[in-house]
Amino acid sequence: MTQPASSRSDGRPKRRKATLFCWECDHSSPIDGDWRLQSRDGDVAYVCPACETTLAKRPRRSDPTPDRTPAPFLTAWQRAFRSSATLWRVSITVGYTNLNAAIGARSEGGS
User: Where are the domains positioned within the chain?
Assistant: First the structure.
């Protein structure tokens, strides 16, 4: 049988990946441990309970994240623009190739 992820064979708790360490006093605790949380200007600051050092600032979870998906009409316009730009680019390339072929044929035949 496998051991649970939260404990070792010697009974001590296993160090979690989401552990914060205070660089001032070497205090360590899980992200949801004994750190003091202070709200500041839309952010949450993680403050060491031992020495009052601010370790990290993260966006507040209660703030809704803006929806980054474009509106359906905008998506349609983007698709139409890309298609027309691609067609324009192809027509320019074909025209340029035909021009080079005509100039090349004329210079070979006319010499």
Answer: 19-59, 70-111
